[in-house]
Amino acid sequence: MPDSGGEPDVSVPVDMPGKRGGTGPVRPAVRAGRSDEFRFRVYTATVVTVGLLAATAVGLWLPFKASGDLWWIGLVLAVAFLLAEQLGINVDVRSGISWTISFTEIPLVIGFFVAPFEVVLAAHLVAGIGTLLARRVAGRVLYNAGAFLLEITGAFAVAGIVQHALGATEMPWPAALAGTLTAPLVSTLLALAAVRVLRRRMRISTALRLTGRILVVGFVNASVGLSGYLVISGSPRAWPLVLAVFLGLTALYWAYSDLLREQRDMEALSDVSLMVARSGQQAAARPASKAENSGEGVDIGEWATIAERIKDQLSAARVVLRLRLEPAEEMRAVVAGDPLPSEQSPAEDPLLRLPGAHVRHFRLTEANSDVRAALLDRGAQEALVVPLRSANQLLGVVEAHDRLSRWRGFGKYDVQLLGLMASHLATSLDNRRLLATLRHDAYHDPLTGLFNRLGFRQVARDPLRDHPSSVVLRVELDVFSTVSDALGYAWADRMVIAAGRRIRDALGHEVPVARLEGASFAALLIAYGPDQAHRVAERLRAELSVPYPVDRLTVEANAMIGYASPSVEEAGEIVDVDGLLQRADVAVRATRGGEEVRGYVPSMGQIFMRRFQMVTQFRQSLEDGQVSVHYQPKVSLPNRQVQGVEALVRWVHPEFGRLSPDEFVPAIEAAGLIGVLTGFVLEESLKRIRKWLDEGLRISAAVNLSVRNLADEEFPAKVVRALDQFGVPPELLTFELTESGVMSDPQKALPILRELHALGVVLAVDDFGTGYSSLAYLRQLPVDEVKIDKSFVLGMGTDLGDLAVVRSIVELGHSLGLTVVAEGVEEDVARDQLEAMGCDVAQGYLISRPLPEDRLEAWLQARTARSPGRQAHNVLTLLT
After folding, report:
1. Signal peptide span per the entry (predicted)?
2. What does the alpha-carbon distance between residue 283 and residue 429 come to, in Å, rounded to a whole number?
3. Class of domain 611-860 (CATH, top level)
């Protein structure tokens, strides 16, 4: 049946034969739905009824001439019709058009001369129905019987009309020729009517082209048969010549058939490869969420179309594609044609356990007992089976059952075609699997198997647009860097895997979860309100905070969770997923001790924007003079001499006003600008020392270092260049650093500190007592001073515990030969206590607040006295 290009929306296979001589069975390889099946049954009943009425009418009209020779003539005609059917040449002109060239016109045209209507009709019915039964297409016998009736009835009706018109008493050859051409024309009209009944579209040009081909072939066959009969009847000894002409015509048909078959096979190979490639591209174009939910994003309907195409090409009753779409899953069966009577198990079925990648041809009459049983389970007389393999990996199996268009079954051309199709199909399927793997890797985290940031962005975009009440969670584990530094990245990775598993188990597998980086995760709660999201986040935080058993260790961890949802203005719009993740991250950063779950509010966004502006405007602020250095004096307690100052950075922002160092320094450090800030403070401090040296004063300056400075291998060289530039002795420069900063990465920090110490620069441990605070750590550090944290100094007057801590630090520092500096000295009592303990240096508001450079000079002049002596050794003594 010619295919107009439209796809029928059907499910039950329906095949219809056409004229048996010019075009033999015209089969629409379609699947009819229930309504179409009912329509076709009504159409079949109509064809049979009209055929019976027409045959009765023509039988009454045309006289029946009885003869004793009719029994063997009828038998010969039946055999001739049967041979003409079996010797048909199948030609698939193009995809969807099955055209069988047969020779039934030859016995039909001869029948007009040698037998009456009833005998020819009976011979044709016996041959046609017998062929259908031999091909096991009994489900269409009724329709074909009606078509046979109308073909022969129409042929004799037209021949009778022409005979009467010519006034002949015997059948003239024009009448026989006209009647013979009527049979394929009737068959074609019935087939075209069936196309309309099945509601399939066909272009008029296609229908006319098909009808023309049928009439041309019918005319050639009828002419050969008519010519041969007339020659032999006039000259009986001419039958070898007629036989030679007939064999030559048959050879031409076969040659034409082979040419068209090669063209058709190439088209089929191209079609199958393109179908698989296009379906793979469509799978790759699907969002990550759909690919996640359907394995590799494979649509079984696409494979059903491919199976249908192979079935049409092989003219098979059934094609089964058994595909392993994922490496770990069982094969799925996709059937085109007659349904399988039963499912087969690959482990037990001999047809599914074939070695190699070659096509095997099994016939029921030639098979062993196991193969015979497998064919009977399929309800098949023969089968072509070929495995789909790639690199010794079984991807699937293709089966084709029972060729319908020829009585002798599948031939070598079918075996070759299926082998080529299987090779193309295996390659395309392997490419699909590779593409699916690449796609999975692009959207998933390789460590945890969860989505990565790109995959989360893909999977979250549509739900956030369709469900504005959805919530994005951001989860941070605060122990990842500690575990990495202490135990190595392999142990930290184990914790990340365990945390990802806990999140997945706590939220359920239907909730999209992603690992963003490090120990940072994200999850999407679809259609959750703020209260629900908060409860879920609390429960999730509790799950994640349970200690982690890693090998033989148990690691304690804490989790902080922030969450955010689209604003009212974003409802129904394409939501910026990265923006929501950023808001949730701001909420995480807003968490405090005891409140580890926070929802995002706009004020947090303002804080974030404030930090963003600070970071982006910092360099310009340095150039514009908005950033300056203040100095807080340090005094030696025994002799009340000004020993040095601590350099403290200050920033007066034109929009935000005076900024606290606790606010902008962490932001600048996180942005990687701490080196710029340290360089600025160092340069300003060395300028100040140089001025004092020029005035005959030896006052040192202390500059605070960040952990990032201690990770810079070039930092000691920068310090050397700065000291040389301003001509400052290294002992007048002090670097202050915290214990936690050093011990966060001692392997990097200690070599830098040793280089600085070798230069003669003074090193001080700041905030001593709040970090590791152990003699073992302190002995590892090449330091000269310890600074007692001001929290202990401030509490000395009221807390005996703080007093004991301060006394212990002073004694510990002196035992190690270190200078001890006390911060936060604000009262005379504290100063006197420190002096009694033997503390070396005091710093705090009692002495002076941090002062800008001009006010520091005024303070020095007003509150200190210059001691006499050489200019290089002048000192300032605090006036009491």
Report:
1. none
2. 12
3. alpha beta
